[in-house]
Fold this protein.
Amino acid sequence: MTPLIFWTFAIAVVTALACGLCGVMLVVKREAFVAEGLSHAVLPGIIFAYLLIPDRSSPWLVIAAGLSGLLMVWLVQAITSTRLVDRDAALGIVFSGLFSIGIIASNLKLKNIHFHAHCIIDGNLSLAVLKPFHLGELYVGPRAFVTMALLLLVLVLFIFIFFKELKLMAFDETTARSFGFRPGWMHSVWLALVSMTAVAAFETAGTVLVVALMITPAATVSLLTKKLSAMFWLAGFLSAASAVLGVMLALALDISAAGPISSVAGFIFLGLALAVGKR
Amino acid sequence: MNWLELIADPTFQTVLLGTTSIGFVSGALGCFAYLRRQSLVGDVIAHSSLFGVMLFFLISYLLTGQGSKSLFVLVPGAAVSGFLSLWICQWLVRNRTVREDSGLGVMLAIFFGTGILLLRCVQRSEPPIPGHRGLEGYIFGMAASMTRSDLIMIAILGAASIIAILVFWKELKAYTFDAMFSHGLGIRHQVMDALLIALLVTGIVIGVQCIGVVLMIAMLVIPAAAARQWTRSLGRMVMLAAVIGAACGVTGSVVSASVDNMPTGPVMVLAGVIIFLISILFAPGRGVLVRRSGLRSGRQSLQEMIP
């Protein structure tokens, strides 16, 4: 195995793990479509940050994209709170509106630079492998791997430290409140983490894969168990397995990995759904 | 290019007619999905249609040696995979411990992901498959490449779905607002469900080529959500949503024809978003600002009453 192929697998696996863990809470809280919304809503942030600072490795890209993800969450909340439109419709309107702004800006200003449709949809794993990250003189690994691994570490620590709070938030907000927790605050922090993951994964994975990796492993796991800790472990395992199998398929077909990884995760779901989880 | 030249240009005429009728039809059909709180179902059908489009493109290539991009081939494909994804999701929700939102999300991921897989394989294939250029356009829409025959397909299916709405108006109205009541009238739920899904799928598949699978949901939800603010009557809501959709279509084609590199679909969506924002701010009786000024004047008159 050449180093290039090794790092391709490594980036895919850390990305899949981070997205898979985020997805568990989304599926448990019946917010699966927040993943679909976020994966589209980060685009205008990335494009506008790039227009201001034309450097693809600038951390401002990630920050701006995170902000536009949060802007989506806030706008949906604001529109829903008027009680004029229900939440699903508000989500659809806001994410498609933000995504349109991103597409128009990139078409007008960035024609033929690296933001064409292929990158938005599939991400660019093969390019991400080539961008190195050095610590002093030492080559640590591709930059995308380092970013995703750090984010994964933050997510895992957060889940370990606040597991009790997450559990209360997931299953019974009223009880949580009576214990003196603040589920609303916890929820916002969690969505901020999900939004950062969507952003960081966007560059390597693109919109298809962010949605697929956030929703599919978690939904598969919800067929098998209702225990939150088991869901986190299994979702992590399943998303990593889909990533490895998906990249193998992508290398065999010589295409970008986003489509194959989503199909593999999807067919694992379908296969398990036929076998288990009967009502 | 000045206005007269633009209007006389046959390519522009085709695009204008196409986007306007797509906006009109999807605006009208979107109302039923919106009122039944199924806005995101439309998103799933739209994304899933990519798989069917790619599959039927490949089948047409295997049968004739030339990949066809005619809507007469690709629209049935899109419809088949749109239906299939919803059917699998409904089966899962009924028979397995899968909730509707995650079931729909997974279907989106599977069908769209596999669609992208097929698309990338087609683009990579050696020797190249004739006719594969432009398939990428299905993702973000390619209004500019609309042909006369596409227009005919859009007109036939659009007219058929509008006629279906008119013919089954009473049943649709009863079922949308009060399913139990409509059951009492002898209207069968399964039939109405099938009819509504068929209408939704038709509205989506004629639009995906022009607006793209990613943004199609906007053309279903936005006109309906905007129109809902102005009226309480279903009839007026459907008509208003159709007109708003058509207005978005006109704006999209005119703006993209007059500015270089301006994509049609996203402009249609943004035109819709602007109309939606105006509606939730200013609609009489419901609008946020209207309600606020009503509260203020109410408070004032209350204070005047207290000595």
Notes: The two ends of chain B are 67 Å apart (CA to CA). The first helix of chain B runs from residue 3 to 8. The mean pLDDT of chain B is 90. Chain B touches chain A through 62 residues (CB under 8 Å).
